[in-house]
Description:
mainly alpha; two-stranded antiparallel ribbon; 5 helices; 2 strands; globular
Amino acid sequence: MRKTLTNQKIKNFQPKCLSKEGRNIGRSGAVSATGFVLPCCWLDRPNEPRDSKVSTLFDEKLHIDNNDTIDDIIKSDPWQKFMRELTTKPEESSPICLEMCRTSGSRYVHKEEW
């Protein structure tokens, strides 16, 4: 059986990398130790497998050595899609985002609902 998010969890989801209006002016971005620009430091988990949403941000084309500016990276299609889906399809966002960017309750205690 696949786990699904409750409406309350989706309603309490407020990406810290975005303002309430959905613009990318929230929490500061991060650069991983391996040279990738990320919306936040929580997405850099080198000892864990990456989910499919986050893995798109680790494409070699997006490595800082392969771009002239940070703007080139954050304006890329994978970055724009990742950020757009945070607001348009929150239920499909990375589990890391859903865990760390809830506005109510402890982000470290997660009660599973089936």
